[in-house]
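Hi support team,

I submitted a single chain yesterday and got back a structure, but I'm not sure I'm reading the token output correctly. Could someone confirm the output below corresponds to the sequence I sent? I've pasted both exactly as they appear in my results page.

Thanks,
R.
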Amino acid sequence: MSLQEIVVDGEQSSDTKNSLISLDSPISLKYVAAGRIAQSVLSYLVREVTEQRITNVYDICHTGDSLIESETNKIYKNVDEKGAASPTTVDINNCVRGYSPINRDSAYVLSNGDIVKISLGVHIDGYTSLVSHTLIALPTIPRTEQVSPTTGVLADDICAAHLATEAVISLLGTVLYRYENQSGYFGNRPVNGERIREIVESVAQTFQVKIVPGSSVRRIKRFLVGQDTVHELDVKGYAWGSISIEAMTDDPDEGDLKKMIDTEAAAEPGEAWLVDISMCTFSGVESDLNKKNSLQVSRRTLKPHRDLKPTIFTRDYNRNLSMKLKSARGVLIELDNRKSVYPFHLNSLNTPGAPLGVAALVNAEIVAPTTVMMIQGSPAPVAARERTTILLMPSAKHIGEVVRLGGCDIKPSWVHSEFEVIHPEIVELLSDKRAGVRLRNVQGTDLNVVKDDIQEMEL
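Hi R., thanks for writing in. Yes, this is the structure output for that exact sequence:
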């Protein structure tokens, strides 16, 4: 994927490479294929963690990345670029992003009661499905023998992230059932970034949790899903600040200047959208909140982990320098030949001396690290994250449907919150009828059969 292609895609909001016409169109089928693999791998990892067959974080991440590689290699043989759009990460408790250890011996081992956020991404020819799911690492107890669900602030946090995600999916889908008259309205208001913000913040307020910076709901395009190193044009949706160290400024309230999101532009049929929402428990002081939005924690509360070094990096195609170090030149050649604009894990490189080469490229700002970020506080906050990708699919036969590419057949952890959504509009969006929105879930496949293959790949 060249920089010129990225710019072209960024400037053409309705070009043939991004327009979703029907579910059986080539573009839609690639999205669905990526979604099916992402869903399958995520389901497999959740099941392995829940049943305590995998507890070492390195094993979880390595298994996820290996499965993505093996599954994408089976399909679309004529497509040059496919594979991981986001390496598998497992973020625990107050860690919010970026943890994917480089070796097994030093990796974190899950304990009972840990809040576990598994994230990964798959792309086929640049058409991307990104998914995340939060679960509580508990012993395997039959539901009939489990005395009660998890309650308290942990339950509030998980419920808020889950319900906000579901409500936004329904809200975006409402642009489809008004497709005939082209109004794109729900309740006589446009479905845009500001409307999305109101829904998410209302849910956060109901469950008395806070929104983590880096949360966003935005339209995505081919190869363009919000990478830190890509300067995009024509972005619409809403983002609650930035979680990237590189994008931060001295003003904790200032937004990400790399991606100026148009919050007034309405969602339209034929678009792909990413819903990525993180919520956290909060018991800090007022100064830890965003000055302009008290429902969001300040970016000052986000700190790089003291001990965990970045293992995930992204090539910045806006910069290209001649490197003196041999390993840096080798890594750069490998990135340009084998990788794309998506993040990559250090372990995925074959160049001798790759860690040293990557370090040199980071210093030259050709490669940007994904810093392992955590939320500071006392007691330490706990974060939950839900992420899914949807297609707003028009139809000539009916009102159209929302196609959800991931996270659809994974049940949330058994939790119970004392809070309940009462806002009439959100209640309607969360009801079984989903405000009249037609929803189709892309189902994953059983990947148990590949477990021996993964072990062979590791050897």
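A quick pointer for reading it: Residues 7-14, 179-184, 244-257, 449-459 have pLDDT under 50 and may be disordered. Let us know if anything else looks off.

Best,
Support desk
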